[in-house]
Automatic annotation (TrEMBL):
Protein's UniProt keywords contain Signal: yes
Record region (Disordered): 418-459
Keyword Signal: yes
Keywords carried by this UniProt record: Signal
Protein name: Lipoprotein
Highest classification ranks of the organism: Bacteria, Pseudomonadati, Bacteroidota, Bacteroidia, Bacteroidales
Bias kind Low complexity: ranges: 426-458
Top-level taxon of the source organism: Bacteria
Signal peptide positions (record): 1-18
Amino acid sequence: MKRVFVAVSLMLSVSAFAQTADTTAVKEDGPKVKQLENEKIDEYRRSSLYSVLVKHSNANYGETIDSVFMMMETPDKFNDHDLAVKSFESSNAKSKKVKESVRGTEKDPNIKDIGAFMDANDVAREMVAKWFDRDPQTGYFDVDLITERGYYDASWKSIEEADANVRGRAMLADAGFDLIGKTFMIVNDITFIDHGENSAKASAGIKAGLSILGAIGSAVTGDNSFQELGDSSGELIGTIANEIAGYKVNIISYLYRLDWNEEMLDRFLTEYWIDESNPDPAKKAAFEASDLFTMSYVGYTMTSAQNVSSKSFSKKPLQEQFLKVCTRALDKAIVELQREYDEFKIKVPIYAVNDDGTVSVKIGLKEGVTEGSSYEVLMKDMSSGVVQYKRVGMLKPVAGKIWDNRFGALEEAEMLEADRKEAEAEAAGSGAGTEQGSEALAQATADEAAETAGLEEGNPYLDSSTFEIVSGAGNIMPGLLVREVKIK
């Protein structure tokens, strides 16, 4: 009876995430809002993600891609579950195009390489080891990371040691349902189509051709003005190069999930668990030789991102430009995978319920929010003894109030504004009536139009997106979780 009471007490002591812990505040330029306390904003259970790169070291910018990928941070809606090895070399050295019918199958070179990578690095076992803070020297495990990511309170530590088994199994059963079983690996094959390089090659060809034509024309006619065709080709070539400069990022992302269930938990605790109070060299060796832990392939997606930014940003170091475009491409890939596979979807807490009946959530374009998106509101349910979620309402984004939280979006908006002002100043200095002034003014107008279009899609000056309550108004409060509904 005592052990049952301990287990029940543990479940009741699990932090249910302060769904009603809110405060009323007044925004400087807005109505009163009921919002989540600042320290509670990030207290929700995330899926965990391990990001890996397929390297093409001999390809153009291969080393740059590798270094940029290592700089990229885990998306903030996931827990960082990276292992020591973050990349591997592709066997498809020449990056030969793979037929669409083969992509994602056992004949896909990437699928073969990923399998070999997981086997060579014991990826599944190492993921489990990370969950339990395994000390590689002693083999000891603990539950500190699970306690931290699951937002359990500390009361379980005060329960007497004799009940550790019941306590641990109760907590780990819950963690397995909502934490360990939501551990993913995403493997990214990134390639670049560098229009700038292509334009440079094209420019060289154009220049050579024009020079030859100019020389021939002068020789035949005796008119040296033909030679000027070749000599003045630089300006023409520069214009052509600028029109097609930049590059496109193509990314193929493969998603895998760590397998975890009650049977694996039982075997883990029985056959492998050791800690400082209970060392066992045989169990340590057994874990290191275990093939119990596996990964399941979920699916893949293909997407791209274009380097279309301000002329100010085009002057930035190439690595900085790559970082921006690569990060945005990976964010898009994650959104596509979430829309295709429900198990990979993120849940994010409602930040504020406003007096005008709208709801604020700290997600935006990076998470794929559009005017056509639809989100369900979820309430945590502990009645079964483990964390589950039930739908209590629906939300829809408000047009014009979607946050552009993509990587570098605010900087980009500020650069566009600076470019526009510079172009307007040039137009004013040149005289709007002159040819040069008209061109400068046209450029300023074009930049302003591009900026306006960007703000219609998403506004980088916001700090959250605003949603209309479609249903369940009486049940919606700060702290409840939202999740995108699959688009049909």
